[in-house]
């Protein structure tokens, strides 16, 4: 995964993607982990039409956010994944991943998206964190000319909001 941060992985391979199917595929992959922690995964997708972006890079960024939400959520809570295509030119994909987990300490926030051993934390069941997931997410969002925002409160939970503009240049 770390090689995603290198310059050789900065080209987008865009195609028309059915976001609802792609996100559902990720939910299926992460269901065993959620079940092991007795976590509910709630999905709300308002993405009826295909959306042009790099599907593999989108899967990687969404996967990192979902994995973190599950890792840092205590047993019996819920993780919500919402995806919505917003109108406009270009259209925007809004992806949010929210948890009722342990939250992110305020002193982590200024460098949250930088690769750092200082950001390694254990999950609620002792799962290890590499500290590179969020820098990868940030890089992939920027490749799509998108934005990422985090709302968090320690002991309450975290929500990541990703906005990706539709990519006009579709790969052939």
Explained architecture:
The strands form two sheets. This protein has a five-stranded mixed beta sheet with strand order 2-4-5-7-6, covered by helices on one side. The protein starts with 13 loop residues before the first strand and ends in a 7-residue tail after the last strand. The longest helix has 18 residues, at 19-36. It has one domain (14-165): Heat Shock Protein 90 (2-Layer Sandwich), CATH 3.30.565.10. The chain is globular, with a radius of gyration of 16 Å. With 172 residues, the chain is an alpha+beta fold. Helix 1 runs parallel beside helix 2 and helix 2 packs antiparallel against helix 3. The chain is built from three helices and seven strands, in the order βαββαββαββ. It has helices spanning 19-36, 55-71, 133-143, and strands at 14-17, 40-46, 51-54, 78-86, 92-99, 147-153, 157-165. 27% of the residues lie in helices and 28% in strands.
Key phrases:
172 residues, alpha+beta, five-stranded mixed sheet
């Amino acid at each position: 995964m770390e090689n995603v941060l290198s310059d050789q992985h900065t080209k987008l391979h865009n195609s028309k993607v059915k976001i609802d199917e792609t996100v559902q595929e990720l939910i299926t992959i992460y269901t065993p982990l959620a079940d092991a922690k007795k976590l509910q995964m709630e999905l709300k997708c308002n993405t009826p039409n295909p959306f042009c972006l790099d599907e593999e890079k989108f899967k990687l960024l969404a996967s990192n956010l979902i994995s973190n939400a599950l890792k840092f959520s205590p047993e019996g809570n819920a993780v919500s994944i919402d995806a919505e295509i917003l109108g406009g030119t270009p259209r925007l994909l809004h992806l949010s991943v929210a948890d009722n987990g342990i939250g992110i300490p305020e002193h982590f926030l200024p460098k949250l998206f930088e690769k750092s051993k200082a950001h390694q934390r254990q999950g609620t069941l002792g799962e290890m964190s590499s500290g590179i997931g969020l820098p990868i997410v940030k890089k992939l969002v920027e490749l799509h000319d998108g934005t990422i925002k985090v709302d968090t409160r320690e002991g309450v939970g975290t929500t990541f909001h990703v906005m990706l503009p539709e990519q006009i240049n579709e790969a052939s």
